[in-house]
Write a structure and sequence with these properties.
Radius of gyration: 33 Å
CATH superfamily of the largest domain: P-loop containing nucleotide triphosphate hydrolases
Strand content: 15-25%
Shape: elongated
CATH architecture of the largest domain: 3-Layer(aba) Sandwich
Bound molecules: adenosine-5'-diphosphate, magnesium ion
Number of domains: 4
Length: about 600
Amino acid sequence: METSEAKRLFEKLKIRTLLDLALILPSSYEDTRLSGRIEEGKIQTFEARVLEVEDRGAQMKVRFELSRFRVQMTGVFFRATPYHRKLFTPGTHHVIRGKVGRFRQWLQITQPQSLKHYGTLLARYKTPLKESEIRALIDTYVTEQNLYTEGLESLEVQTLLRFHFPERYALEASTDYDDATRRVLKFVEAYNHLRKLRSKRHDYPAIKALRGSAEPFIRGLPFTLTEDQRRVIGDVAADLGRRDRAAKRMIIGDVGSGKTMVILAAAAIAGKDRSLLMAPTSILARQLYEEACKHLPSDLRVALVMQNGQEGEYRHADFIIGTHALLYLDDLPPAALVMVDEQHRFGTKQRAMLEAMVSRGERRPHYLQFSATPIPRTQAMMESELVEVSLITSTPFEKSVHSQVIGRKDFPRLLQHIESELAQDHQVLIVYPLVEESSEIPYQSIDEARGFWEKRYEGVYVTHGRDRNKEEVLLNFRKEGRILLATTVIEVGISLPRLTTIVIVGAERLGLATLHQLRGRVGRNGLESWCYLYTNAEKSERLERFCETTSGFEIARLDLLYRNSGDILDGTIQSGQKFRWLDLAEDEEIVRQAKARLGERQTEGG
Ligand code: ADP
Ligand code: MG
């Protein structure tokens, strides 16, 4: 097959690699080999001679003799055509194929075909290509040698070849997969995906190796760092110390896991070689600025840059913190380290821009991203082919948050709870699905509900995603509010230390990751807290299991688990499942093995 033709077919199949092709498995098999024995219930192929024909109009019965077995078998045609009548005349020989059964004591074969070509076992594929095209592709590329060259080992190679070339390998072909086969397919799928990711990775030399010490900063802290924080700072220090390769690392940890200390440690290591930090909101940027001023050694000059004002002189600062306003400075000084906090709240372009602003030719700044969106461990293992990943799975202090699914009948009890919290000068957040009334959603909107709360309580504040004054409302609420009504869109960047209760209305409509983000708002300072998932739905195992854990990483796994089982989230069935065999919620060990295999190949120089 011509390479250009193969390329066209690969594109049509929307695949890129040889293993993508090998993983397109047959949807069925056509077995026209002569059957060795007669088995009722199966589609079988026999040599047969016509003895006599009984023609009853539409229905026709043909008595065959199976020469090899010396038995008779009746062929039944329910819709006989002139073709059948001409074909099956007494005395003629055929190779017939059809489903074997029994009628009374008679062996019977239903609507048999007379085959011209027989004696083969062929794989059939369901693809946008013609049968001959996919066949040619498979024959050309899915060869034993190619599969070994791709890095597979004999069990994997044999398993794949058996599917595509059953005749050569197995007596019987089947599209049922046993556990051992599934495992192999999962492995090949994981391995193929990892290789693709790895081939996408591009590394650049760093502007500078940063070898300052974080120790003075760490010793000056009013608390001791958690083991996780220390480990990640170690990862980061090792990255920053290289000049041959600019760091590319993603640090992922739940809200409250203490990522800021990692940011500050990195800034301390960079020292006078200057670092930049971008945060998604001005509240957050200011908070980071204040923490930097408080904890970093005083010889490091820190500056804050926002759309509506600055603090410190950024042109001469060692550590420049800002919002996306940083992207619009035309006199940003050179920097050797770039960091982005809450990276998922920026677009890809924005994130790349900051890095580009301080790149110098081939040389790139070290680049660290921070994310509060935990991903399943398996996914982190995969992603780490593209960027290094550090996970922070513990928090500095044990959070005490009680989570509970509640319904309409629990409302009086909820009000009691809210009142007792308010009496202790604590705050309450109630999250509604919508701002305005809608017939689509069987819950109250903020507009419908606010009257109820405002009539009963002082200090009720309202905001939502499209609210222009959101930040101001939040700051006022933090100071003097009691109850905040909001929508899910409010990604509160600021900490609300007195917030002890969150009520999420219509919780079953939300993904677990969103629920987790929302729940992360309460109990940030170790105060005993409550998260109520309000739902009209009958019973939800998904929500119940959410209530049993507070680990973002476990929740990410549960999220996958329930998505895979076709749960309806946020009103739509989650699609975009990337893998046919691999289950990221369960197959950690397989991903680990696939990574190890890839690692071996790397060191062999393969
Ligand atoms: P994140 O950015 O991961 O959501 P932060 O860095 O804002 O979390 O940390 C949350 C809170 O925990 C902050 O008030 C911070 O000062 C505090 N903190 C961080 N690390 C520790 C620690 N090792 N011991 C005690 N408190 C800590
Ligand atoms: Mg943070």
